[in-house]
Amino acid sequence: MRHLAILGSTGSIGTSTLDVVRAHPGQLSVVALAAGRNRELLKAQCEAFRPRCVSVGSQADAAWLRTSLSYQPELHWGDEGLLACALHPDTDTVVAAIVGSAGLASTETALRAGHRVCVANKESLVVGGALMHEAARAGGGELLPVDSEHAALHQLLGGHNPDSIREVRITASGGPFRDWPLARIQAATIEEALNHPTWKMGPKITIDSATLMNKGLEVIEASVLFGLTVDQVAVTVHPQSQVHAMVGFHDGSYQLQVCANDMKLPIQYCLLYPDKQPGPVAPYPWDGSRTWTFEPPDLERFPCLGLAFEALRVGGTAPALLNAANEVAVAAFLQGRLGFWDIQACNRDTLTRIPATPLGSLGQALDADRAARRHAEGWVQTRT
């Protein structure tokens, strides 16, 4: 039996995780749930799963929840609440699904506590880099990726000599603007950018998919997770989103991982690893005709992907700088303070103007994050 703390339980990853728990009641139980502002959904989750520890975004939300629930769990809020859930004595597995760098400290803390961490918070790896591996080694924790592409790579790379690997390729749907001309992309509206053709995700990740920044962050994540150089990681656009990753070997052959485009599959893979069992997703259907297409990404129309490769090549705090600037720019776009094309401009300006330094500690990574946010906020102010 695995005892879960789900950080970000009301988001798309969190709700999918609870679907997986429902499918495996004899193997998975919920000890702790943490969410932000969606207290009504969190209340419903608490009543369904009866976690012993619960965290919300604010003290006011905690007070509301205390009077609304039919039972009395431990109630916490804010950053300390995330840590309380991750470190609850009954927890042994943490699903890290807090969006953005806010989930960084709780991910590192869970790894140092010796937990299995199923990381959907890619920023933990983008910002924290090798520090997360160091935390896992120090505490005996286990780091498994929830992103469909990285869960696919985890399966494909297992058992192979690293020296036999020539490259890995993660796939991208191409987002809603895959076929759009540059001028139309530059003028894209919020509604258009949120209309993803394949995946149903939260607004921040959906915008990142429209700019291909999400894929850029995944490139950095793949490098960190699997010890790959920047020249060993590539992106292939695959609109059908059914081949999730591929590994190329020095003999010229490739292996591909295929499954339905449903996040419950990689979530279940992480939770039950190394076992593979029937779950809430049907097996991939091979009896019908289908067509898969593959094409290279266009870095002129999607420059955020190129910026991610640049940050990975520079190394140190550069990925943290890019990630922080992007969070600020995407938030400003969703608030109507920036245009769509301004996102990449803000990211580029921040990465260019703030020098990257070698990454030696989590505090240094967070300092870089704060510096980039200040710069990006200033940049946004000049445009509004």
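The record above closes out task 2.4. Task 2.5 opens with a second protein, given below.
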Amino acid sequence: MRASHDEVARPPAPAWRRYLTLLAKLGFMAAALWLVARHLDVPALGRTLGQARPGWLALAAALFTLSKLISSVRLNTFFRAVDIQLTERYNLRLYWLGMFYNLFLPGGIGGDGYKVYLLGKEFPGRRGLIFRALLLDRLSGMVALLVLLLALLALVPAAELRAAGALALPAWWRAVPLALLPLGLGLSYGLGRWGFGEFRSAFGRTSWEALGVQGAQVLCAWALLAALGAAGGPVLPYLLVFLASSIAAVLPLTVGGLGARELTFLYGAQLFALSAPVAVSVSVLFYVITALVSLVGALVRVQK
């Protein structure tokens, strides 16, 4: 009788491979930050950051924290769909500890790896399902990012898209992102049913939760723009670049997305003729908020 996928023990990756991956990420991050510093007026960036309004920063931190609370609930929805029963409180503690591991211990086990290890001991024979729940959680977040990106792209005024003189768009261009929205949603739903059929009962609820997560983070970026005194200008292009930077940060290229997000903001600012110091300041402040919120995970105990 063949062992099921859940019961197969996978050997851990060799230590040299983990360290080589970490060195590659650090190298890419350093190169990205060097490019940002080379093409940016660093004193202007410092002045912009120094003028940030504390009240708006506090609101941005609250919105980011809200996004993580919703994200924790979404992950537990996937767990419960395959009868992995965790209380919301325990799942939240585990989620926050995973955030800390992902950001501050990237060369070690990582947040997701720790969840697979710990929950695999609590639910023997279900490690494969736990891994698939975590993977589907990430994929649902990416789909929500793309949905919001297409929606904002259709809303941004054509004059702002052509501000840099780099985009000459025909009159019917808005039909493209609007048409891609239902097409992408239908494709993602079909692929989800095909590749993750055991989680089918959670698809509807987690889709809305994923949009709530990314929507709260978009509002967080808007609050950061307000903190920098830039919310009265062309806000939508900044938010469009923010969503693109969030997609770049998800890619496993740097440590905690640092460097990839800033580089995306820099080139996005150039494309849309935005203020580069303001754009990169949003990125820097978002990373600082992420780090501070994730640092709380170091104080978390995950015992039931």
